[in-house]
TrEMBL record:
Keyword hit for Transferase: yes
Family: Belongs to the class-III pyridoxal-phosphate-dependent aminotransferase family.
Pfam families assigned: Aminotran_3
InterPro entries hit by this protein: Aminotrans_3, PyrdxlP-dep_Trfase, PyrdxlP-dep_Trfase_major, PyrdxlP-dep_Trfase_small
Protein name: Aminotransferase class III-fold pyridoxal phosphate-dependent enzyme
Top-level taxonomic group: Bacteria
GO molecular function, one term: transaminase activity
Entry cofactors: pyridoxal 5'-phosphate
Taxonomic classification: Bacteria, Pseudomonadati, Pseudomonadota, Alphaproteobacteria, Caulobacterales
Amino acid sequence: DALHSQDWAWRARAKAVLPNGMYGHLSTQMLPEAYPQFFSRAEGAMIWDVDGVGYIDYMCAFGPNLFGYGDREIDDAYIAQLRVGDVMTGPSPHLVRLAEAMVDQVSHAEWALFCKNGTDATTAAVMAARAATGRRVILRAHGSYHGTSPWCTPVPAGTTEAERGHQIWFDYNDVESLRAAATEAGNDLAAIIGTPVNQHAFLKQQLPTADYARAARAICDASGAMLITDEVRSGFRVVADGIWDDLGAPPDLSAWGKAIANGHCISVVLGGARARYGIESVFVTGSFWFASAPMAAGLVVMERIKEGGYLKTITETGNRLRTGLDEVAARHGVGFEQSGPVTMPLMTFTDDPDFRAGFFWCAEMLKEGVYLHPWHNMFLNTAMTDEHIEITLKAADKAFAALNAARLTLGPNERLLAAAANR
Ligand code: PMP
């Protein structure tokens, strides 16, 4: 692959020194073969791979990019704080300022505990719920991802049954299933993690019904359990508040990360009065949790969230993209499905259980400079313009035509089969 010779050279070197040649969610192992693994640059809505090829990036680093890569004002605040004091023996007042800003912005929040990754926040929230209630059992929706700690990693290798214990699964948006799980937990119910939006990889995305969210709240009220929402991925991309606050089901604890400092490293547990004792009981901390530079970036982000215009921007962009793609797909007679909020879309094909059509179509889009994901939800950011959408729709026109010409010749998706076999 002459176009990606640098990328293949880096992959060859990586094979020797990185687990599996690359690890974690940024590995391209489960993407079409043409997807580059290594990137050199990002700006606004674009990324450039190590061979210098640019793409409109609909993955947004899997969520952290909300206001465009390299946003000048946000990064200037980060750099200025880096110059005067980042990781120190004590926190700077930015810790208090950012906590105040988040408590001001998110309805259910009365306090904030900052950490680094989403997993830190979901894990601390679960610990706080168990500490607050003195109970063990956590209810989780099937397919919801909450991070990589032993209690929640989707791959059980390296964990013990005990670490994964005291959890009961229910079906998302299914009040009966949720009630049955709560009954099974009985008086050992510590918390329900009510995933704000169901963003299960490989499946159509589901928005929560108000009935489901309120049933979770009611069960927690009746039983003394804590309601937790995991906003790590969805936070501030659908509403400028907690998604379930908006549905009349404010949680006791919520976990946030990814976009809250537009790509700078910080996450947070937010909570209300019922959970304060719990969060004050657990011991959670980290060498880098009090770094001030990401907090300086977070303060600028919170000003933008409060101002609110960003949400209109990404929603309008998302609507144009969704409507436009539906029109182009219909013109080509392709069974194309879009699910999830328009600002966090998933694009799949009907009758495509092994994603062979999705892989082919995404690889065609990549050739046109549009970086999509065939089975994981994508993200929009405020740096995306009408021009980016136009380019994307033109690319889709070509890619749907190519798919129609090739569809009957497409074989089973070897890369997904191989990845599945490796698990
Ligand atoms: N919860 C959700 C909903 C997520 O999407 C993620 C990250 N994809 C996490 C938790 C874990 O976050 P992190 O990877 O930052 O630990």
